[in-house]
Amino acid sequence: MVDGLPASATAGVLAAATTAGGVASPLYGEPPIIEVRDLTISYDGQPALRDISLDIFRHEIFGIIGPANSGKTSFLRTLNRMDGFNPGMDVRGSIRLNGKDINDWRNVYALRSRIGVVFPLPVGLPLTVYDNVAFSPRLRGIRRKADLDEVVERCLTRAALWDEVKDRLDSLGSLLSGGQQQRLTIARALSQEPELLLLDEFSIAVDPVTTMRIEDVLRELRSELTIVLVTNLVQQARRLADRTAFFLMGEMVDIGATEDLFEGRVRDERTTGYIEGRFG
Length: 280
Known about the structure:
By secondary structure, the chain is of the alpha/beta class. The protein has ten helices and ten strands.
């Protein structure tokens, strides 16, 4: 293992290239899609996250675990500049997407189109199932119904929802079950054709069966994009994540290959304590 990279990264896959942080990519030496350096976040002067530096690689599922108020959601919000919605939120340090500082993007909407977000509770637009998914493609200028139909079916299929809603695409999305609405938000995020998908506690309002279905969807999506998963379910991180970071009281206490952390190969014993449920 190299500095917390997936155990599956074999010598034949690891290339000689290194990132700015000195970590070799597990995917043929490609640079990371996200580079975070010295990130500090505060709200009205009160620190929420301090001096975070990490890389996120292409086509990996990167998990973030930790108790409430550890800075997990704050970290997620900075990745596509959602901090702009909170005037009291101050962000220091740098975040690079494909080597470009996200603050250098003049068009923040173009940045956010590259980064899809799924929130803890389903947030459906007050539109039909069809229009929820077609909303973003229409903003990009797609107008032909045949083209929109193809996008809607593809995204709903990728979100494991097409078979359940294909006969009621004209119904309001808000009339779907909670689990279906959550998958609809995933389909809507995918309709942006993002490079990066951020999920914040997606299973809070979803039953266990639907949670497993969504997890299957995420495993399939990793071949197409990169996923950052914030979860309060440590076993969910173990099932899904290639690497996992443990946040505690505003600090990144640990980061490494997920199986290493769960098997006790940690930098800080508090990581094992949290994983084993001794606190949190």
